């Protein structure tokens, strides 16, 4: 089985393909929102981002890269290792937030309301055979 | 962007939110403030026109709409009741980047794009525990989080903007007064014809509360035991009487201080009785009390001052020989939920954060006409409270329950 390096261009392309296939506008309740995850201290010492955006439930942005990434409604900031733990199911997102391992910026009330949709997104991304 | 609600001429309870915001922002402009960081309940009530019970902050920019940050468990409910939209009603919770300090820090830095400037905030002191002043800890955290901002105590901007009530607000108080009167009617019916026998203060408080709820009250908002009920020797204790399980008894005084809330306007009326047989001494005290209250009612008008009123009331009581029993003060401030203490808005007063004795009452200002009469050595006391609207040549009582101290059989 092909394994994709986390946040690599190949992983990004596979992620986009799977999200478009699995998450319909109806599944996402026609949400319009965007999120940029900032990965501090990646294995090569750099900072990276993962950006995703939906308009009326349709995927309109899905990219990774070096640096801070595009502006988004929500920004989630954590060490690469924390994101990797969450993606592997070793650490809950809420526990990461409440233990200050992960920082969320944006409208918190809206973030909580959208949390189930983010869960759906993460579940799809978790199906990608990934090499961390 | 949400539209600021316009005054609806067909809605007697419609209030002028746009003017309120304009007045606050004009005050900010005069002080050269970039932001106003509100924390008091009264400020939330005034701007959001919604019930805000949890610790909440509101960021008002020099121009544009405010954004409110409340405990996240209540943010959806608040959103459903205020005029602001989802982008301007936000939550905080105990998570990194999401607590009540960081969420506001990031909002100011990331979304308003401000790294420095002048922030007005609300600090001071009060007799009212739930006033909502910024705590020392919160202040230190905000200072650390926003190091290039200057913090200026500016609560008087809101105090001045809220002192004169618009017609919709006064109508809300009138309705709250009507509701409180329904509570008093139910209380009166409950105790008459021997109904008082075996009844406790707490039971009477509940009977009145039910009657007021049936009429549309959403809260017995008072912090001192909701409806304050006292009987017998407890009526002579002073001006705070949360109800107890004490039973009413023959030959005692009763004091019913009922509270209702209608669209954030606070109904607050105290009425008193004597359970037969009343002694001559009790009747003398009761007649003194009624006369003193009536004197104060007749004295309120635009142009009067709290200092003058208390002096004149003291003189009147002296003439009747009852001045030893009148607790100092004939009023306390009142406004929308969270606003119930000092009179006036000035920060430059003889005793800071207490009523300004030289405050000149203006038309459409409201206060609670309040008098406490206490004769503990005779085991008797009475209280009067009634939200009043100051008029050019007098005042309007919002509660219409007749002033009297009846003897109940």
Question: Can you characterise this structure?
Answer:
The complex is a heterodimer of chains A (132) and B (409). Chain A contains 4 helices and 7 strands, in the order βαββββααβαβ. Helices cover 35% and strands 30% of the residues of chain A. Chain A has helices at 9-22, 80-87, 93-98, 108-125; strands spanning 4-5, 33-40, 48-55, 58-66, 74-79, 102-105, 130-131. In chain A, a hairpin with a 7-residue loop joins strand 2 (33-40) and strand 3 (48-55). Chain A has a 5-stranded mixed sheet. In chain A, strands 1-7 form a two-stranded parallel sheet. The two termini of chain A are 15 Å apart. The N and C termini of chain B lie far apart (61 Å). Chain B has helices at 17-30, 41-48, 75-81, 102-111, 136-145, 156-161, 167-191, 201-214, 280-299, 306-320, and strands spanning 35-38, 56-61, 67-71, 89-92, 117-121, 149-153, 228-231, 253-262, 265-275, 331-333, 366-375, 380-390, 395-397, 405-408. The interface between A and B is medium-sized, with 18 and 20 residues.
Descriptive tags:
heterodimer, A: about 130 residues, alpha/beta, Nonspecific Lipid-transfer Protein, Chain A, 5-stranded mixed β-sheet, two-stranded parallel ribbon, 4 helices, 7 strands, about 35% helix, B: about 400 residues, Creatine Amidinohydrolase, Chain A, domain 1, Creatine Amidinohydrolase, 2 domains, 6-stranded mixed β-sheet, 4-stranded mixed β-sheet, 10 helices, 14 strands, about 30% helix, about 20% strand
Q: What does this entry show, briefly?
A:
The complex is a heterodimer of chains A (132) and B (409). With 132 residues, chain A is α/β, with parallel strands linked by helices. Chain A has helices at 9-22, 80-87, 93-98, 108-125; strands at residues 4-5, 33-40, 48-55, 58-66, 74-79, 102-105, 130-131.
């Amino acid at each position: 089985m092909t394994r994709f390096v986390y946040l690599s261009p190949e992983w990004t392309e596979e992620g986009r393909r799977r999200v478009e296939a699995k998450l319909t506008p109806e599944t996402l309740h026609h949400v319009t929102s965007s999120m940029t995850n900032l990965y501090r201290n990646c294995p090569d010492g750099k900072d990276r981002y993962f950006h995703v955006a939906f308009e009326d439930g349709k995927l309109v942005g899905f990219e990774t890269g070096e640096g801070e990434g595009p502006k988004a409604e929500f920004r989630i900031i954590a060490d690469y290792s924390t994101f990797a733990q969450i993606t592997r199911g070793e650490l809950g997102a809420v526990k990461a937030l409440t233990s200050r391992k992960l920082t969320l910026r944006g409208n918190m009330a809206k973030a909580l309301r959208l949390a189930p949709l983010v869960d759906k997104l993460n579940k799809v991304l978790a199906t990608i055979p990934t090499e961390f | 962007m949400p539209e600021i609600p316009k005054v609806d001429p067909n809605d007697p309870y419609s209030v002028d939110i746009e003017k309120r915001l304009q007045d606050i922002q004009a005050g900010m402009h005069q002080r050269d403030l970039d932001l106003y960081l509100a924390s008091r309940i009264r400020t939330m009530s005034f701007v959001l026109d919604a019930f805000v019970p949890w610790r909440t902050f509101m960021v008002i920019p020099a121009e544009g709409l405010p954004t409110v940050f409340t405990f996240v468990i209540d943010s959806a409910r608040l959103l459903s009741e205020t005029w602001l939209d989802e982008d301007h009603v936000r939550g905080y919770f105990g998570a990194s980047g999401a607590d009540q300090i960081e969420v506001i820090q990031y909002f100011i830095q990331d979304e308003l794009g401000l790294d420095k400037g002048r922030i007005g905030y609300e600090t001071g002191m009060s007799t009212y525990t739930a006033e909502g002043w910024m705590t020392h800890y919160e202040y230190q955290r905000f200072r650390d989080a926003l190091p290039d901002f200057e913090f200026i105590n500016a609560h008087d901007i809101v105090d001045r903007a809220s002192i004169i009530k618009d017609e919709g607000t006064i109508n809300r108080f009138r309705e709250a007064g009507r509701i409180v009167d329904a509570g008093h009617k139910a209380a009166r019916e409950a105790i008459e014809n021997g109904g008082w026998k075996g009844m406790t203060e707490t039971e009477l408080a509940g009977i009145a509360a039910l009657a007021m709820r049936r009429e549309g009250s959403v809260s017995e908002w008072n912090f001192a035991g909701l409806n304050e009920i006292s009987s017998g020797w407890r009526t002579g204790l002073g001006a705070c009487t949360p109800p107890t399980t004490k039973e009413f008894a023959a030959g005692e005084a009763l004091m019913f201080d009922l509270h209702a809330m209608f669209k954030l306007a606070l109904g607050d009326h105290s009425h008193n009785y004597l359970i037969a047989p009343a002694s001559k001494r009790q009747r003398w005290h009761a007649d003194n009390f009624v006369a003193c209250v009536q004197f104060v009612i007749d004295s309120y008008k635009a142009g009067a001052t709290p200092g003058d009123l208390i002096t004149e009331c003291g003189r009147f009581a002296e003439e009747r020989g009852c001045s030893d029993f009148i607790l100092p003060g004939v009023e306390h401030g009142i406004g929308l939920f969270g606003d119930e203490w000092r009179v006036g808005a000035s920060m430059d007063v003889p005793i800071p954060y207490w009523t300004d004795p030289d405050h000149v009452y203006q038309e459409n200002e409201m206060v609670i006409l309040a008098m406490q009469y206490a004769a503990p050595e005779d085991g008797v006391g009475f209280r009067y409270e009634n939200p009043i609207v100051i008029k050019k040549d007098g005042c309007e009582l919002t509660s219409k329950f007749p002033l009297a101290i009846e003897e109940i059989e």
